[in-house]
Amino acid sequence: MTIKELLTQEYFILFAIMALGIALGKVKIKGIGLDLSAVIFVAMAVGAVYHYFGITFQFSEVINRFGLVLFIYTIGMQAGPSFFESFKSYGYKIFSLVTIMLISGAIISYILVIFIGIDKEIAVGLFTGAITSASGLAAASEVSSSPLVTIGYGIAFPVGIITILAFIKFSPKIFNIDIEEEEKEQEEIKKIKNTAILNRHYEVSNKNICGKTLSQINLRNLTHCTVARVMRNDSRLIIPTDKVELKCGDIIKVVGKHDDLEKVEMLVGSETTIKIPSYKNFESKWFVVTNKKIVSKSLRELNLMENYNSTVTRIRRTGLDIPPSADFRIRYGDKVMISSPKGNARSFKMLFGDKIKQLSETSFLPVALGIVLGVLLGSISFPLFGLNISLGLTGGVLIVSILTSYKGKTGPIIWNLAGPNNQLLRHLGLLLFLIPIGLKIGSQIADTINSFGYKLFVVSFFITFIPMVIAVIAGKYIFKMNFLVILGTISGGMNSTPGLTVTETITDSDEPQIAYAAVYPFGLVMIIIISQVMGMLI
Fold this sequence. Notes:
Radius of gyration: 27 Å
Strand content: 5-15%
Largest sheet: 4 strands, antiparallel
Number of domains: 2
Number of helices: 23
Oligomer: single chain
Number of strands: 12
Distance between the termini: 45 Å
Shape: elongated
Helix content: 55-70%
């Protein structure tokens, strides 16, 4: 096999670009790297070189489509479990900010493209590239057959990355923001309103509840908090079953969020400095949910108090602590803390599974079945305003993946994959999608620049820059948000991991990371929806 023949072998080019791109993405300058985004730069460079030397090469459409559906499905699978929960856990402000930012970006794309006189078909490509969203490109290219979509993405993508990194780095100076003051302000807010799960002790003094049982006062439903321990005024420790009567002078230990704990104080009595000692024969342990039989069951259905004389005090999902409630449904991979009499650990291991090694095992069945259902859903047409509308490949796959992963389980099928497994498949899908796209962009980008000139780069800059300015102004002066939260929201809304890494160079606070994690699933879905709509309109 000659060198020229080797350079036109799909498998060789695919893995060569993959290896070079991943290696380049690991290179960091002052802590900032491109990660997987570097792969498309390598693919574009290879495509440009091939075009220059007249080497004809094109990937099979099957590779591109396989990468597309795998990438979109695993995105939905990642976002699904927390997509709806995030609206309950966080305020409307960060989601409103993302919506404003992305919609304004789409509008600006059309306005600038029309104003400058560039073909409208390139607008959606410039939009997805300017916000550096491969998922947006995937959605748009699936509904639009125009090659200008991918060309626009290739031109705007490097401009978008540089603009996002520079904006986040220098935005404190641009808007005259004192980062130290923002850090202090956020620390004060944390003290007043902490979203973490806390535990506090209260003395029962409300005569209206004295003599009533925990089930009668309905504390868990009224306050969303859990009574973990009860101590009678004679220092006798009591396990907090629903039938336990509270007496005036009792000390109770309650677990919940800051705002919810304030409701406990109004219901029960004032907070006290008296601490209930640990039960000698009582313990609290974490258990990992790997037993498929209990996935999607509520805590009420498990009935741990009745069956084991035990209480769920907190639940951890994807790194976030969630207060338990009777209607809370267990997901595969959740970590559950149980407060229980000693000796129950073995029973809980059998109940929850608690097999950490099992989380690393990947079953491709839910992915394959989910993609099949998504493709079928996307192929269904329905009439709307006189037009036959369909969700398309990406829309159908995305909706199925979000809904199934949120449901968690159907019969014996677990729709969720453990984080590392999902990430591996998601990255594989992204690589298989980006490399053919990058090669195509690289082979055509020179001709496109010759046709349209360098004004496309200027347009790309404004599509990235203006929405971020709007987001800062709206977040700081309308929603009165902390600037560190705004930076995290911008990075998460644009799904820009490199952008998030820049925040680490300007602050030691973890507020940008928290906002990024909260808004990332919402941003993913919004980008895909907007890109699809733009693709259908051109």
